[in-house]
Amino acid sequence: PGPGRDNVLHVSAYAILACIACAAFPRRLFNVPVRYACVGILVVCYAALDELTQGAVPGRTPDVADWLADVIGTGIGILVAALLAYRAGQRTAGWRFVGPLNRNHQRPLEA
Q: Which of 23, 37, 74, 98 has its Cβ near the most Cβ atoms within 10 Å?
């Protein structure tokens, strides 16, 4: 693929990966902002590792521009996941920490 198409593919692939990772990340353990931050850090680190290991593959070279496209795709994927969660009615689930977890493993919200 050409340079422009390659970046579109990187953004698309990492947006999908980040969106799936947000859905798969354990909701009971972390509140929403922490969950999305953890997903972002993990996916961006995976993207960096993916780019670095390309140097060991014949015919492939690591590229910072590809990694930046991966980071942009990760951000888009997290944003899409957050918007989907909001539209699904999870907009208040865990956004504010106001005390310990209750017996349902949820943080109570202020009245």
A: 74
Q: In this structure, is the dihedral angle defined by the CA atoms of residues 18, 20, 24 and 30, taken in order, positive or negative?
A: positive
Please state, in angstroms and as integers, the Cα–Cα distance from residue 34 to each residue in 37, 41, 60, following that order.
5, 10, 35
Q: What is the pLDDT of residues 16-56, one digit of tens each?
A: 999 999 988 877 777 778 889 999 999 999 999 999 999 89
Q: Is 96 helix (H, G, I), strand (E, B) or coil?
A: coil
Length reported for the chain:
111
DSSP state of 56: G
Closest alpha carbon to 43 in 70, 66, 69: 70
